[in-house]
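Design request, C-alpha cells follow.
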C-alpha cells in the first residue's frame, strides 16, 4: 500500500466562483424607496428618501438585457411594474434616483429585482437627500449589495441579523425585513435573543406574499428593544424563500447602517462517507456564505475500485477550494477537484445535494492517472449530515 498525503495542497477546481458582490441573472436589492420620511427637529426637517443603483456587465463582448422590477411592499408582485435597460460590454450603468428617472413614480417603498440574460453585478444605495449640516445640504444613506435569489432561505432554514439596537435613550432604532424570491408565499417567524443567546419573549409570525417585501421595526418583536440584540429569521412554512436584511439607525444623525444576514441556511460542516462495498472512507465539506469552500477526503483505491490494482493507493486530499462553489437552488453542487503528487494525478468529480434538514447525499467519482496498475476510475455513493 502506497500512502501519499496531499495535506494543504492547493486544490485545482472547475466551478463557479463567488464574490463579495455576486454577479447573477436574478438579483435583488432588498430595501429601496422614494418618498418623504420622518420630520424631526424644531423647525422640522423632513427626510427625503431616494434610491440609486449600479449595474455592471463584466463581459467584454456581449450586452446584458436587464429587466428591473419594482416589488411593492406588502403586495403580491407576480406581475410587477418593470422597465428594461441594456448594459453594454464592460459598462457600469448608474441609475440615479431611479424611481424618478426609470419608473417615474414617488411615494413608494419595497425592493428591486434585476433579471438579466447574462450575469451582472448590482449594488444600490438608499439615502436621505435632505441632510442639513454646517456645510450645507447633503445626503446620508446606506449601501445594499445585490443579493442573488439563490441565497434565499426556505422552509426549515434560518439566518440571523446581529448587532441590532433600539435603546431606552432613543439613540438608536432598528428596522428589519425580508423579500420573497421564488414567486411563492411562505411563513416567516422572527425571534429576538440577548447578547448571551437567551431567547426574549415569543416569536412573531409574518405571512409573506409572492415576490413581496416586508419591513417593520424591532419594537414589533417581543424582547426586541434593547442593546446588542440578535434576530433569528426562519422560514417555517410554504414554498417561498426570503432574503433578510436589517438597518440600524442613529436617531441623532439619521445615519443608517446595513445589517446583512448571517448564514445562508445551509452553512456548516458536513461529515459523511463514501459508501463502498467492503469499507467506507471519510469525506467532509465546509459550506460558508452559501458556497462549498473546503474539502477533506480520504481516497483509498484498491482492487475494489480498479480491478487491476495491486497493493493499493492511499491519499488524503484536504484544503480550501481555489474557488468556492455556490449552492444551486435546492442545495445542489457539482465540482471537480484535482491534484498531482509523486507523479500521480488524482481527480474527484463530486456531485451532491444538501437538504434543508441538513442531510448530505450524492456521488463521488475518483480517477487516478499514472498510478500503474491502480490507474482508473470508480464512482461511489456519498452520504452524511451537517455537524450540530
Amino acid at each position: 500500500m502506497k500512502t501519499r498525503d496531499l495535506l494543504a495542497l492547493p486544490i485545482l477546481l472547475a466551478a463557479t466562483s463567488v464574490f463579495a458582490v455576486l454577479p447573477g441573472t436574478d438579483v435583488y436589492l432588498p430595501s429601496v424607496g422614494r418618498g418623504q420620511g420622518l420630520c424631526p427637529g424644531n423647525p422640522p426637517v423632513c427626510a427625503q428618501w431616494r434610491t440609486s443603483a449600479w449595474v455592471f456587465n463584466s463581459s467584454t463582448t456581449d450586452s446584458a438585457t436587464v429587466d428591473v422590477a419594482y416589488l411593492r411592499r406588502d403586495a403580491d408582485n407576480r406581475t410587477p411594474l418593470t422597465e428594461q435597460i441594456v448594459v453594454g460590454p464592460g459598462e457600469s450603468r448608474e441609475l440615479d434616483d431611479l424611481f424618478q428617472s426609470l419608473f417615474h413614480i414617488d411615494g413608494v417603498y419595497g425592493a428591486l429585482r434585476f433579471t438579466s440574460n447574462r450575469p451582472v453585478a448590482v449594488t444600490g444605495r438608499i439615502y436621505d437627500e435632505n441632510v442639513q449640516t454646517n456645510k450645507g445640504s447633503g445626503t446620508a444613506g446606506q449601501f445594499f449589495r445585490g443579493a442573488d435569489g439563490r441565497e434565499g432561505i426556505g422552509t426549515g432554514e434560518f439566518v440571523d441579523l446581529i448587532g441590532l439596537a433600539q435603546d431606552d435613550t432613543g439613540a438608536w432604532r432598528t428596522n428589519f425585513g425580508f423579500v420573497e424570491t421564488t414567486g411563492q408565499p411562505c411563513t416567516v417567524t422572527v425571534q429576538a435573543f440577548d447578547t448571551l443567546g437567551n431567547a426574549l419573549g415569543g416569536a412573531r409570525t409574518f405571512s409573506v406574499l409572492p415576490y413581496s417585501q416586508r419591513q417593520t421595526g424591532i419594537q414589533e418583536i417581543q424582547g426586541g428593544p434593547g442593546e446588542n440584540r440578535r434576530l433569528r429569521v426562519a422560514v417555517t412554512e410554504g414554498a417561498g424563500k426570503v432574503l433578510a436584511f436589517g438597518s440600524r439607525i442613529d436617531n441623532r444623525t439619521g445615519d443608517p447602517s446595513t445589517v446583512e444576514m448571517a448564514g445562508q441556511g445551509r452553512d456548516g460542516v458536513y461529515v459523511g462517507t463514501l459508501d463502498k462495498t467492503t469499507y467506507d472512507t471519510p469525506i467532509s465539506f465546509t459550506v460558508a456564505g452559501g458556497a462549498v469552500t473546503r474539502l477533506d477526503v480520504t481516497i483509498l483505491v484498491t482492487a475494489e475500485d480498479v480491478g487491476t490494482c495491486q497493493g493499493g493507493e492511499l491519499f488524503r486530499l484536504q484544503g480550501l477550494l481555489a474557488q468556492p462553489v455556490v449552492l444551486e437552488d435546492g442545495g445542489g453542487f457539482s465540482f471537480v477537484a484535482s491534484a498531482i503528487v509523486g507523479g500521480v494525478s488524482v481527480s474527484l468529480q463530486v456531485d451532491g445535494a444538501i437538504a434543508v434538514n441538513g442531510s448530505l447525499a450524492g456521488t463521488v467519482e475518483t480517477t487516478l492517472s499514472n498510478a500503474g496498475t491502480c490507474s482508473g476510475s470508480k464512482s461511489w455513493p456519498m452520504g452524511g449530515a451537517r455537524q450540530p
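Comment from the thread starter after seeing the answer: thanks! Residues 48 and 130 are 6 Å apart (CA to CA).
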